[in-house]
Amino acid sequence: MHGASARRNPARAPRGVAGSRGFRSCSSGRLGSSELLTSTNIFGVAAASAVTNGILAPSIEYAETGFPVGEVVSVYWKDSEDVLRADAATAKTFLPGGRLPQVGDMFRNPELAWTYRQIAAQGAKAFYTGNVAAKLLASSKTHGGTMTAADLAEYDVEWVTPISTTYRGWTVYELPPNGQGIAALMMLNMMEQFDLKAMGHNSVQALHHLIEAKKLAYADMQRYDADPRFAKVPVSGLLSKSYGAGRAKLINASAANCSVPVGTPEGTDNGTTYLSVVDKEGNLISFIQSNYSTVGFGAGLAVADAGFVWHNRGGGFSLDAASPNLIAGRKRPLHTIIPGFMEKGDEKIAFGIMGGWNQSQAHAQFVANIVDFGMNIQGALDAPRFSKETFPGCDVNFESRIAKSTRDSLAAMGHQIV
Question: Fewer Cβ close by (within 10 Å): the C or N end of the chain?
């Protein structure tokens, strides 16, 4: 099993650069804001030989001839209209003819087709040292970015060893830090201490224990998860069964905890689009990428004449000197996008989900649906879930299909349903 991790800062992206420009925080907002810093990391393009004209041909055709705008994406487009109009290159690409695409309209992006052709002909080289690189650098300079030709030329996708834990006979895999996948595995280690099957799917007790495990896992993730080349991330300690069992003991079976403590695992010094594919030979790919933010168009700035926007995953950095995610050159930010795998004997499942900080907790609920509650894959995907995207506090969201009586009982335990 192999994992690929992309995205890191340009060399000249230290906290001093941000401070000298008056930025007060990292954020998912657009580039150019006087209040926010959105670091636009280097893109990750597969360097595999499979990136050929044949593989990209369908994408090139869709970009050139167009595809009908769907209902969901049209909502994001409408919500993002002001951001898209604020930059000439972005408006040219995503507001053709100065008009917001409507449901059913055919949207064409010939500039993106050009970019795909460059990659099809030259592979990743086109993106990092070729014609696409020239457009990237011009766009970065236009918007006051710090990226250089050397940053692009030295970049390569990093192949990493997935991290894993066992859960009732299954082995569950996630990508290692700097992603949030470790939180899903920490949740599972705590969940293993309780008989969720006996509690019943989406029962008051099952949901309560899942929510509390989420809080504990996310508290540790926020404290320790970072680029391991820049911070000491105690992965083995966080994923040890004894540590998970100890954290599980902090869960009060009858009351919600609105202020969970950070743990001290061994190894410390105290101190969204997802897809999975299976080919005819049984090879599985679990893949996720994201230009995230409330507007859905990344940093809100397109690379002129290239057909795509800058992403904004640098919003996972911090300007707090005490944070393990303090912004630095060539550093990767804490991020939310995590593809997952699980296996037991000959059974193998690739899984993932969209949704920001919802992902780790959704991964853990999906695994429990398969393992504890005996659901098939479709049932595990369709089952209603809870989501708590904040870190501290007792606020939590539930899908409406979770019984009102269950939600009322959880509220009585101190969960603040929003």
Answer: C
